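ok trying this again, last paste got cut off
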Amino acid sequence: MLKYTGYQSSVHYDEKAAAPWFRYVDNKGALHEVWFEDPRSLLRKFRLVREYELAGMGCWHLGLIMPQTEELLLEEFNVR
């Protein structure tokens, strides 16, 4: 169970999209659906870069830190 800004919701993982997500209803009754990255989804994306021999990839985040990101990056690629 994930507690998000006072709301509780179960986190799901979409295998086809390779991404976690959750839904919650706010105090005004509006339904929200949130998709985000986690170590599983990042690893899948890193491996797609290698599989398709892409020159690189980019990403951004707002105020979220995932300590596993650097470790996964160094395990999957030769970083200079």
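PB: full thing came through this time. The first helix runs from residue 39 to 51.
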